[in-house]
Amino acid sequence: MGRVEGKTAIVTGGASGIGEACAKLLAQEGATVVVSDIDRSGGARVAKEIEEAGGKACFLEHDVTSESRWQEIVAETASAFGGLHVLVNNAGIGVGGLCEHFSLEDWHRQTAINIDGVFLGTKHAIPAMRAAGSGSIVIMSSGAGLSGAPGMSGYCATKGAVRLFAKAVALEMAQLGDNIRVNSVHPGVIDTPIWTKVTPETRAAFGAAATGNAVDPAVLASAMAPVGRAGTPDDIAWGVVYLASDEARYVTGSELVIDGGATA
Ligand SMILES: NC(=O)c1ccc[n+]([C@@H]2O[C@H](COP(=O)([O-])OP(=O)(O)OC[C@H]3O[C@@H](n4cnc5c(N)ncnc54)[C@H](O)[C@@H]3O)[C@@H](O)[C@H]2O)c1
């Protein structure tokens, strides 16, 4: 019996990195998984790999900044799989640059995905989870949602915002007696493709860890994480499986830090 057997989960940003690992481990533990992402080929690949491994999954193309698309995704999930029990609000981007040089356009691009996307997903998942009788909403924040990082003020603002958003909605759900839990997860430096998608301004924020067109998570982690290595996507996904499962039935409004000791 898998740890999330019988549950249906949506994982946003499921085509890559941490979201891909969450989708695969949730499926391995018995959930039916809707992989959602703007990346059509990556999302289809992840859903196919889950099915080939004996799991249940489908891919739905999804821009988390679109409210109308969120309504469709939740409705399609509930009608195709008989309900929605788990939402992993994972899709996110990291745009760096000194505050005084940061453009309003980049600020809005980042907040649209990292905050608006989380708000819209949570808003539309709640009624579906209420109808299903229970729910777990997991919000992918960051170590950068717990403390500041120079050159990453816009990113820190988004990750700090969703940390308190999670707690406030957790309290609403508890008050309403809805059996819907909401928690945030705070990864440290995790080795995913996000580090290859960075702008020159973002690379500059990471100093010596920036090499060529990317930031090297191993170099960054050797300076930041006391355990001396970058985390893997699975290191985060196992925490998400726990929060999604009934093992975490008394866990709500909490923040799960998975960072190799970086904030200890
Ligand atoms: N990698 C790390 O070190 C790290 C650390 C802390 C927090 N995080 C957070 O974890 C989450 C996942 O990051 P990752 O490292 O796996 O990144 P990633 O770049 O590997 O994956 C992010 C995924 O989100 C998708 N995405 C981007 N914009 C989207 C949109 N508008 N709608 C739907 N999908 C969209 C991308 O296509 C991609 O598949 C992010 O929220 C990130 O901020 C990552």
Structure description:
It is a single chain. The protein is α/β, with parallel strands linked by helices and 264 residues long. The protein has one domain: Rossmann fold. Helix content is 45%, strand content 16%. It has helices at residues 17-28, 40-52, 67-81, 104-132, 153-176, 200-205, 217-224, 233-244; strands spanning 8-12, 32-37, 56-61, 86-89, 135-140, 180-187, 210-211, 214-215, 255-258. Strand 1, helix 1 (17-28) and strand 2 (32-37) form a beta-alpha-beta unit. The longest helix is centred in the middle third of the chain and has 29 residues, at 104-132. The relative contact order is 0.15. Residues 12-13, 15-19, 37-39, 42, 62-65, 90-94, 113, 140, 142, 187, 189-190, 192-194, 197 line the site of nicotinamide-adenine-dinucleotide (NAD).
Blueprint (SSEs and pairs):
Blueprint: E1 8-12, H1 17-28, E2 32-37, H2 40-52, E3 56-61, H3 67-81, E4 86-89, H4 104-132, E5 135-140, H5 153-176, E6 180-187, H6 200-205, E7 210-211, E8 214-215, H7 217-224, H8 233-244, E9 255-258
Parallel strand pairs: 1-2, 1-4, 2-3, 4-5, 5-6, 6-9
Antiparallel strand pairs: 7-8
Helix pairs in contact: 1-2, 1-8, 3-4, 4-5
Bound molecules: nicotinamide-adenine-dinucleotide.
Residues 12-13, 15-19, 37-39, 42, 62-65, 90-94, 113, 140, 142, 187, 189-190, 192-194, 197 line the site of nicotinamide-adenine-dinucleotide.
